[in-house]
Input
Amino acid sequence: MACNHCVVRVGRAIASVEGVVEVDVNLEKKEAVVNFEESVTDLETIKAAVREAGYEPL
Output
């Protein structure tokens, strides 16, 4: 992520995943903190959403 536009895109992509309760994307740290319901989704699904938005999760 290089700018605030990236933060918005990544945040929206993650938030669109069913089961995601809360997401906080931090540009300075280049990280996203995600609270999600494990009975509904998983980390791999969230990472896939980030990839579909054009970014590579670490």
Notes: Residues 4-52 form a domain with the Alpha-Beta Plaits fold (CATH 3.30.70.100). Residues 21 and 38 are 11 Å apart (CA to CA).
